Description:
Elements: H1 2-5, H2 19-24, H3 30-48, H4 53-63, H5 75-79, H6 86-93, H7 95-105, H8 113-120, H9 141-156, H10 167-176, H11 188-196, H12 198-205
Helix pairs in contact: 3-4, 3-9, 3-12, 4-8, 7-8, 8-9, 9-10
The protein binds fe (ii) ion (FE2).
Amino acid sequence: xxxQQLASGDIGDMPSLGLFxxxxxTADEPLFHHEAKVGLITHLLxxxxxxDNGSAAEMAYAATVHDVGxxxxxxxxxxxxxxxxxDEIAELRRHTGYGALLLEKAGFDPDGLxxxxxxxxxxxYDGTGYPTGISGEAxxxxxxxxxxxxxxxxxxxxxxxxxALDHAEVCRIILEGDGRCSPSHFDPVVLEAFRDNAEAIxxxxxxxxxx
Length: 211
Ligand SMILES: [Fe+2]
């Protein structure tokens, strides 16, 4: 299935690292915290959509490895402050396919939630995402949940190339758009759950902070 879905895309070479070798290398790095927070927000959104705790937990677990393919990227590209070149953008986009392959090599079900989350979390509801450009409910639900959680955490966190934004600003960007991010990128049902649970997400993301 992965091979079919990636048939039209260039995913480069197979990942060279084992899954847990890759995970251990990031235990103290921002990506580790990103994965954990996206997992927690995914759990909250899945619960808000009516999934029982077992189902929400399965999706949250999948969400915690959604960016594992980032290990395929060079540190320079990941941390670069300047605008990325076309080649670097292509390298960045390969992390979805790399992640799916890494998980499959580690024994995850090729059609399961973790592989779906890794492969499809940058798809957009309006079909403008990657790697496959699928749209709407053709995008697996777990990936539609991770897409919102991923953008929330990415905007809240400081990176070498950008400052952290506060909760209210991030909510405005996700719900109203800002030129780069548009509500059309997200499942409207998931967006409604995000809006209805924004305060809980704020507390979940930074339990000791006021922002
Ligand atoms: Fe990603």
